[in-house]
Amino acid sequence: MDCSLIFLHYFLIQKVGVPPLGGRVGSEQSTSAPAEQNTQRTMLSTENKTSFSSLEVVDRPWFPYLCTEVEHWEWKTSGDGHYNFWMALSGEGYLRCEAQTFRIFPGVFFIFSPNQNISAAHYSGARITRFSAHFHPLRAGSRVSEIEEFSLLGGEVPSLILAQRQIDVIMRIALRRDDDAVLAQKLHEFILQCTSQRHLIPEVALNGRVSEALRIFREAPASVLSISQIARDLGVSRSHFDREFTQQTGQAPKQFLINCKMIEARRYLESSHLRVGEIAEALGYKDIYFFSRQFKQLVGKSPVQYRKEIQ
C-alpha cells in the first residue's frame, strides 16, 4: 500500500485552502449509482445505537489517517485484532468481505470486526481517498470482545461535506499526538453519528451474480474467454447480465474486464521482466498489436513507452 500522500488532503484543506473533495451524497451521486428499483435498502435508526460507551484508539500515532491511494490501488488484510472504521471520501472501487462484494464510492463507510479477511481495489476513474481509524470498543472502561451490530456494518452518510468537516477536526486532534482522550471522544461521536441515521440509506452490497463476476474479472481476467460464457455460467442471458452488471457498477462488463486486464498489464510492466508479447499472452490476448492498441487507448501510451518512463 502506497500512502505517500498521507495527510496531504488534510493539509491542502487547512493550509492551502483547497476545497474538500467530493460533494453531498444524494442527487449528485445518482448518475453513477445503481438503478433505484434494483437497489435494496436497509434501515439504521437511532433505536439501533451502538452498545459501547467509548473507545480506545489503536496504532497511534499512525492512526487515524487520511490517505489518497495510487491509481490502481489494492488492499488486503488477513484479519487484524481490532475494529476498523473505514470511509471513502473520493474515488470508486469494490471491497470484498465475508463472501460479499460492496461498492466503494464517496460517503460509503464500513466498520470491520477483528479477524475479518478484507480485500479492496480501485479500477478506474478518480483515485480513492479514504479515512481509517483502528479502535477497541469500551464499556465501563473495559474492552468489549464482541459488538453484535459490528459483524459487518456499512452504510452511506447523508452528507459527505459534513463528514469531511468532522474528519478534519479528528485529524487536527490526531496530529497533535497529545490529546488521545479527546481524540477517542470525537471518534466515538463520529461513529455514533454515522451508524445512527434515521432515514433509509442504500444497501451497498452487490448481488451474487455481479459479485462473482467482479471476483473473476479481478482475480483471473485472462481466464475469461467471453462475457457470454460468464453470463451462461451465472445462469442468465447475456443481455440480462449486461444490464444487471451495468446497473450495479455503472460500467459495462466488457469495459470493466478490459480495465482489469490493463491494471494487470501495468503491474507486469512495472514489476516483471516479461516482454510485451509475453504479457499479452498471459492476459489472454492472441494479437500483441491489438493488446498494445488497447493499452494505449486506456493508459495514453504504448506498453513500451510506459515501461521506459517508470524505469
Written overview of the protein:
The model is unreliable at 1-49 and 198-202 (pLDDT under 50). The protein has 10 helices and 13 strands. By secondary structure, it is of the alpha+beta class. A hairpin with a 2-residue loop joins strand 6 (93-97) and strand 7. The protein has helices spanning 8-16, 160-176, 180-195, 208-219, 227-233, 238-249, 253-271, 276-282, 288-299, 303-310, and strands spanning 41-43, 54-57, 65-68, 74-77, 83-90, 93-97, 100-104, 108-112, 118-122, 129-139, 142-143, 152-156, 200-202. The strands form 3 sheets. Strands 2, 3, 5, 8, 10, 11 and 12 form a 7-stranded antiparallel sheet that branches. Strands 4-9-6-7 form a 4-stranded antiparallel sheet, covered by helices on one side. Helix 5 (227-233) crosses helix 6 (238-249) and helix 7 packs across helix 10 (303-310). The protein folds into 2 domains: 8-202, Jelly Rolls (Sandwich); 208-310, Arc Repressor Mutant, subunit A (Orthogonal Bundle), CATH 1.10.10. The radius of gyration is 21 Å and the shape is globular.
SSE order and pairing:
Layout lengths: L7 H9 L24 E3 L10 E4 L7 E4 L5 E4 L5 E8 L2 E5 L2 E5 L3 E5 L5 E5 L6 E11 L2 E2 L8 E5 L3 H17 L3 H16 L4 E3 L5 H12 L7 H7 L4 H12 L3 H19 L4 H7 L5 H12 L3 H8 L1
Antiparallel strand pairs: 1-13, 2-10, 3-10, 4-9, 5-8, 5-10, 6-7, 6-9, 8-12, 10-11
